[in-house]
Amino acid sequence: MKHLPVAGKFITVLFTAAFLVACSGSDAKKEDEAAAAAAAAAAAASASAARAAQEAATQQQSLDDAAAAVGNVFYFDFDSSNLRSDAIEALNAHIAALQGTERSVRLEGHTDERGTREYNLALGERRANTVRDYMVANGIASSRIETVSYGEERPIAYGSGESNWSQNRRVELK
Amino acid sequence: MKSLTALVLNLTLLMISLVARAELTIEITQGMDNPTAIAVVPFAWQSAGSAPTDIAAVVDGDLNRSGQFTPVGRSDMLGLPSTQAEVYYRDWRAIEAEYLVIGRVSVAGQMRIEYELFDVLRQNKVHAGAVTGPVGEARMLAHQVSDAIYEKLTGIRGAFATRLLYVSVTRVPGANDYFRLTLADSDGARPIVLLESREPVLAPSWSPDGKQIAYVSFETNRPAIYRQDLATGQREQLTNFKGLNSSPAWSPDGKTMAMVLSKDGSPDIYLMDLASKRLTRVTRHYAIDTEPAWMPDGKALLFTSDRGGRPQIYRYNLQSGNTERVTFEGTYNARARVAQDGRNVVMVHQQNGSFHIALLDLVTNRVQVLTSTQLDESPSIAPNGSMVLYGTKYAEQGILAAVSVDGGVKFRLPAREGDVREPAWSPYMSR
Question: Is A159 a domain residue?
């Protein structure tokens, strides 16, 4: 959302410079002054636009860094597709980073090995949809989000027991 | 969908007939209390050279695996008769064999196996028969001999001359695992890899004539349902909808496929007419509806739904459109499969936090837990209704295991390498 106002300002400045050039009198000196002023204004405008673009890029970079820092995996409790508070915090960082861009994301839902495979496919989809719905409610267009469920087919940890299962109940944002 | 309906993919890259990386072994863990002692004498080879397959050993293994028989060891046999004239009943009474099987094998273009079954105590011939077929199908011919002997002695049609589909997985920590859809004989022998992928493959199922299979593959990075002809290898992608595409289940007449799609929001059961590819929606509920299984008469479907809060089995009547809940015992009952009698249902049943295979009697509504391990899933019932194959974990490895429907006989079929899961027992093979 930030780069559009910056571009707008840049165009306004250019128009002003062009208007000054067009409206200047017949006096050669004035013309030269006007031309110089226009050139200076254009230079200043371009410098300011570059600065603004740089700032926006820096700001986006820091949002991306913040999103990267929280990781792209959101964990769930057993047999639940409710977002945990730690997942909401992490998701908010990703949403902030996505808002300034047109990037698309893929949400991959996963479950632990307990229960039947096909039911777990459905449960993984429910988890991915929960994350998608939260992102949509917070301003990310649903057209930018793809969801897919892997059920229990793609474990992070292969073993049994809660220490492994808790790592596998997740949605990955890619 | 138009581009998909006739999409037949070339399988030269995907369909690899690899030799057995996931060959199964068999460990019998529990047999019946008083199994019948039967002596299967090595069959006489009557052609040039040496016998390509030990037919008697295959028959021995089949009868042993049923848990209802205990084969006599060859080293205990006092003679090796191959004709009735050579049979001395006292030799078999002496080693307490109740029945005796002898046979002869010859090849003249086709392989021919002749066999005879004797009752040692009554001292008479119970049955004699012969099977003929390609030499390359020697093991299948041996299974047909087992089927005939089993039926003669138990009154139940044998299911040894059948096949299994299963998924085997080679773990690759930190990267995508290898998934292989494998076809093998009912004893795990002669495995053939039908599909190999770095993306998940699951839910294999059989057409009622045993000539085609269907499964879910993620090879396009999304789940899609495929069907494949076993004789030609020709493959067709049946679905490619947004969301879930899973649980393919052929109707008993082979014309319709039940499946699970979530294209309209939540997972629901749909029917696809396989000729026209036209879809009919069966369930409409915001809850999860999945794992459809046909009743043998084709008039109703069982499925899993958590519309009541927890997963339970429901029955949908295709004629009346009515849905009724079937299971009430326990907090988790899922993935039903119905025996050919239309009465016995096997399913996954949770008890004290563990997932077991249970038998549900649709007439009495009685639930009997058949297994005692903790992560049992994907039950598949033999076409004669006698045994249930399922997936479980043993020593942190995915293995196949089997249990008889009365719970009395148990055996394991661990793979020599990797994890195995999701067995699908074929129907009787048309001869």
Answer: yes
Q: Are residues A32 and A52 in the same domain?
A: yes
Q: Is residue A135 domain-shared with residue A80, that is, in the same domain?
A: yes
Q: What are phi and psi of B199, to 5 degrees?
A: -110, 155
Nearest CA distance, A119 vs chain B (angstrom): 7
How many independent structural domains does chain A possess?
Answer: 2
- Identify residue A104 by its one-letter amino acid code: S
**ipTM, 2 dp:** 0.90
Residue A110 lies in a domain: yes
Is the pLDDT confidence value at B408 over 70?
yes
- Are B237 and B220 in contact by the 8 Å Cβ rule? The answer is no
Q: If we measure between CA atoms, which residue out of B427, B342, B346 comes closest to residue B384?
A: B427
Q: Of B202, B335, B377, which has the smallest distance from its Cβ to A153's Cβ?
A: B202
Query: What's the CA gap between A57 and A52, in Å, rounded?
Result: 8
What range does the domain containing A165 cover? Answer: 71-173
Of A121, A150, A160, the CB nearest to B375: A160
| For chain B, domain boundaries | 2-23+162-425, 31-154
Average pLDDT over residues B397-412: 92
Query: Is A150's pLDDT higher than 80?
Result: yes
**Are B403 and B392 contacting, i.e. CB atoms less than 8 angstroms apart?**
no
Q: What pLDDT, in 10s, does the model give residues B125-175?
A: 999 999 999 999 999 999 999 999 999 999 999 999 999 999 999 998 888
pTM value is 0.87
Of the candidates A59, A82, A102, which is a domain's last residue? A59
- Encode pLDDT of B363-383 as tens digits: 999 999 999 999 999 999 999
Q: Is A54 on the interface with B (CB under 8 A)?
A: no
Same fold, B2-23+162-425 and B31-154: no
CB B361 within 8 A of CB B344: yes
Alpha carbons B324 and A112: distance in angstroms, whole number = 29
Sign of CA dihedral B216, B219, B224, B230: negative
Q: Same domain, yes or no, for A156 and A121? A: yes
Q: Which of B167, B198, B268, B290 to substitute to test the interface with A, most A CBs within 10 Å?
A: B290
Beta strands in B207-311 (DSSP E): 212-217, 224-229, 235-237, 245-250, 256-261, 268-273, 279-281, 289-294, 300-305
Residue from the list B171, B203, B288 with its beta carbon closest to the beta carbon of A122: B288
How many residues in total does chain A contain?
174
Tokens representing residue B156 in the block:
């139940």
Q: What is the percent of chain A where pLDDT is above 70?
A: 84
The Cα-based distances of A117 to A77, A113, B8, B19, B291 in angstroms read: 18, 8, 27, 27, 9
Average pLDDT (B201-221) is 97
| Contact criterion met (CB < 8 Å) for A121 and B290 | yes
Tell me how far CA of residue B108 lies from CA of B111, B114, B134, B135, in angstroms. 7, 14, 10, 10
Q: Is residue A76 part of a domain?
A: yes
For domain B31-154, give the CATH number.
3.40.50.10070
- Distance set, CA B180 to CA A32, A84, B198 (Å): 79, 36, 9
Provide the CATH number for the domain formed by B2-23+162-425 in this structure. Answer: 2.120.10.30
Tokens representing B233 are 């290898």
Asked if residue A95 and residue A162 are part of one domain, the reply reads yes
Identify the CATH number of the domain in which residue A79 sits.
3.30.1330.60
- Is the pLDDT confidence value at B31 over 90? no
